[in-house]
Amino acid sequence: MNAAIRAFRELQAQGVIRAFALGGASALVFYTEPVLTYDLDFFIILDAPPDTLVSLQPIYEYFTRQGYTVSGEQVLIGDAPVQVLVAYNPLVEEAVQNAIELPFNGETVPVLTPEYLLAIALQTNRHKDRERVRLLWQQATLDEGRLVDILTRYELIERWNHLKSQM
Amino acid sequence: MEPPEKPDVAQLPQAVRRVLEFKEARRKQLAQLPPEEKLRIIVEMQKWARAAHIATGRPPTPVWNLDELMKRAKPEPPSQV
Q1: Which residues pair with A104 in a beta bridge?
Q2: Model confidence over A43-68: pLDDT tens digits?
Q3: Phi/psi class of residue A104: alpha, beta or left (left: φ > 0; alpha: ψ in -120 to 50)?
Q4: B38, B49, B71 member nearest A2 (Cβ)
Q5: Best mutation site among A33, A65, A77, A161 for testing chain B: the one with the most B CBs within 10 Å?
Q6: Where are the domains of chain A?
């Protein structure tokens, strides 16, 4: 993971990406009990003007030069598939922009905050996402004011209230 | 699909309720562990999942190489022009 973090920082320094942050189930290790996962999900914001075709090729080429195996849309680091996901909607983009640096294995890594992780999981709303919402609600230290603000702005508050009533 | 209704824990025998309470407390303890330790636990879970898949004739699932994953990256040498 440290290798991936360093690689993303290099790509940021080179201006290939504007920002990056760890998200998905792998980010839960910073806030909740560990949950079984097979991917390390890194969300990125590319440094490209809007309405241009985005290509992740420079990112994959960078990892290949570093000696990592690129398979499809994944980079294998220590047998862990690192998934590079371009921030795909305004909520995810805002989440990456507001990621916080947390200590990990002697370095720091930008990680989505628990409020944004919960909001994204609520927006995605698959069964496993609802399970993540429940975990974050029960175990993470959440800033409820910030959470309600995010959920209100992204029209998720009704879904949240419904789910919360069942927890 | 809607999540299932909340089970009525109060209806369960006391012995079962005690186990559930213990499990809940254990999960809260796990949540307090450092992320590096949680990553190690995830790898252990991956090993169990892989063994279960193999035992039931399903394709084996991946297991992360923790040593490689936790390896601190060395700075790149300055690029030569």
Answers
A1: A107
A2: 999 877 666 667 788 888 888 998 88
A3: beta
A4: B71
A5: A33
A6: 2-164
The token duo for A43 is: 């969300």
Q: Does B50 touch chain A (CB under 8 A)?
A: no
Task: Pick from B9, B20, B70, B79 the residue to mutate for testing the A interface (most A CBs within 10 Å).
Answer: B70
Fold of A2-164: Beta Polymerase; domain 2 (3.30.460)
**CA dist list (Å): B6 to A27, A122, A163:** 27, 19, 11
Q: Which amino acid is residue B69, in one-letter code? A: L
Dihedrals phi, psi of A71, to nearest 5 degrees: -125, 110
Alpha-carbon distance of A3 to A66, in angstroms, equals 10
Question: Mean pLDDT of successive 10-residue segments in chain B (81 residues)?
Answer: 62 90 92 94 94 92 89 58 43
